[in-house]
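#lab-general

N.A. 3:47 PM
ok so I finally got the sequence cleaned up, no stray characters, all 292 residues accounted for. can someone with queue access submit it? mine expired

B.Y. 3:52 PM
send it over

N.A. 3:53 PM
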Amino acid sequence: MNPGALSSGLLTGLREGVEAALIVSIVLAYLAKTGNRQHFGRIWLGAGAAIAVSILVGVALFVTLGGFEEPYEQIFEGIAMLLAAAVVTWMLFWMRRQAASVKGDLHAKVDRAIDEGAAWGLSLLAFTAVIREGIETSLFLVGQVNSADAAAPSVILGALIGLAIAALLGYGFYRGSRRINLATFFKWTGVGLVFIAAGLLSHAVHEFIEVGIIQFGTQTAYDVSHVLPDDEASGNLVGQFLRALFGYSARPEVTTLVVHVVYVVTVLALYLRPTAPRPPLVARTSTDPART
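B.Y. 4:20 PM
back already:
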């Protein structure tokens, strides 16, 4: 069991799972509040279909990666990690804009689906909400699994634990048993994902250096493997944890190190800068005469 890989997978599963679970729970809670419980099944249908598609995409990516031989395997792994890092980066800034108003926007969309007699649109709403998180999770986990090598099972186990916790949080949110500050949660888990995405990005650069695609800055920037090694043979759990979670390398190439540092500094500065909340769409209230 690799604690770093386990924590990396857990954070991914928790972060992405909570987003999907909260969106579904918000919609279900609003339907219950407005006396539309009969539409619950359509929400579960849309969410279930999205989960199934996400699993198929993840399996297809993993099988495809495993079917290549060197150097094409490294090239494909590098591309997959670059894509995962890009998707996660986009997702971070999308959620940064949406966190303050996501509840009001969802309420307004539910109102429109019910009012227009297109209740099956609720299935589509749940599907589109969950599929985005599911595809991102699949891409991210495939990148983590391939970078973790022998520690891949720990990544998957961590992700499953994170998703289970997310489901419990979603149920708790629906039942009103706990109050979740979405903006705060997304902010700090987002900071963690910035470092994980930086690790994926730098690992992709390392793969491209190994196969000769990148031929500049390939010299070793520093070597602290005698102090904090990151390979499993050393048995150093701290180094393995930092490698799996944050992309740490005891002997990074110059280009790999520069890419890692520039990404972290730039993305954190943009992600943590103050922003004004986006005005939410106006949802119908229980005092609307059309509901009385």
